[in-house]
Amino acid sequence: MSLYDDWVVKNPNANEKQTANVEFVLKSIDSMPAPAVPAAANLGVTTSSFGQAIAHGSAPTFARSDHRHPLPAAPTVPAAATTTPAALGTAAVGTSATYARSDHVHALPSIPAPANLGVTTASFGQALSNGTAPTFARSDHRHPLPAAPTLSSLGAAPLASPAFSGTPTCPTPALP
């Protein structure tokens, strides 16, 4: 059915003038040659690459509705590490070609043995020192001290029956 015949069926109440105008226009359209359709593109398979910029294109051909864009092969994923991770140390990015598994565990550093240096006697007046030994102190350790000094060791007279030497003096109050 032509465009004109379709219009007449849908507009049965149209007057003669309307029908004549529509007949002229629609029969003119029906008699026009169909526009030329560009040929479909048949460019063969070319591989795109990841990160290519978008391009809308300007070719006089059209894309077929079932066309596909080929992609390059997926990048290779490195193998998982199969060796024990290094113990704790200085942080580094690393250069290994393998990746670390999410459940890997780093070994703890070895703990030095506690010091067992025996009992040594400190003396009064020793200078403070933080120390440099690679061992640690036990939590229940004690620092030995020398015996407490006595009055006699300091050159003082004993408290019970002191022996005085020299001439004792005492302050004399002023008289009023």
Fill in the keyword field for this structure.
176 residues; little secondary structure; 0% strand; elongated
What's the helix-strand series? HH
- Indicate the radius of gyration in whole angstroms: 54 Å
What is the typical, i.e. mean, pLDDT? 75
Strand runs, count: 0
Overall 3D shape: elongated
> Low-confidence parts, pLDDT < 50 over ≥5 residues?
none
Derived structural class: little secondary structure
Distance between the termini: 153 Å
Q: Kindly estimate the percentage of residues that lie in beta strands according to DSSP.
A: under 5%
Tally of separate helices: 2
Report the biggest beta sheet as strand number plus sense, adding barrel if it closes. Answer: none
Helix content: 10-25%
How would you describe what is shown here?
With about 180 residues, the protein is largely without helices or strands. The chain has a domain at about 1-35. The protein is built from 2 helices and no strands. The protein has helices at about 5-10, 15-30. The longest helix has 16 residues, at about 15-30. It is elongated. It starts with a helix and ends in a 145-residue tail after the last helix. The relative contact order is 0.07.
Please provide a brief summary of the model.
The chain has 176 residues and is largely without helices or strands. Helix content is 14%, strand content 0%.
Strand-helix topology:
Blueprint: H1 3-10, H2 16-31
Helix pairs in contact: 1-2
